[in-house]
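Quick start: read one record
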Amino acid sequence: EALALEAIENLTGPTDRFSTAFLQVSLGRIYRMRGRPVTAARYLHEAAAAFESVERIGFTGWALAGLAGVRAEVGDLDGARAAVARFEGLRDHPIGIGVAESRRALAWVHVAEGDPDLAAELLEAAAEHGLAAGELVHAGHALHDMVRLGRAAATVDRLRELAAGSDSAFLQVCADRAV
């Protein structure tokens, strides 16, 4: 957090919008993980605008999905839906920046709207993408979210298998707490 904030303040010369946006999305993710969704939303909103200004569509989607998720966390369904609409309006990006993480964030909008079944479908897709792309922690997050939504029977074995094939203490905790 401190490094990213310092880097933003110390950018000199012609501002590199992409670098600034990348630092902003990083701060948004950090603040979300630290339980500060309002601050996260500010940085994710700024990141989305900055990425969009330099036509970095994949990164724009990553920031918008994160924004949708944090807006849902604070109960701002209108803001969450607006971010989802902007996300869905983007063309697909071939690199797939943060796909598993983005699908997971979008799933929580559906939880906030009272549709855990649709959220579970998105979380399943996030887990599958994470596994296919080698983003094991993001896959584990998605599987653990499915447990949190009452789908332990469908995911606990997969989560245990994922943890067993990794040296991630986080994944092991998720697997241990899934039952």
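Residues 116-133 form the longest helix (18 residues).
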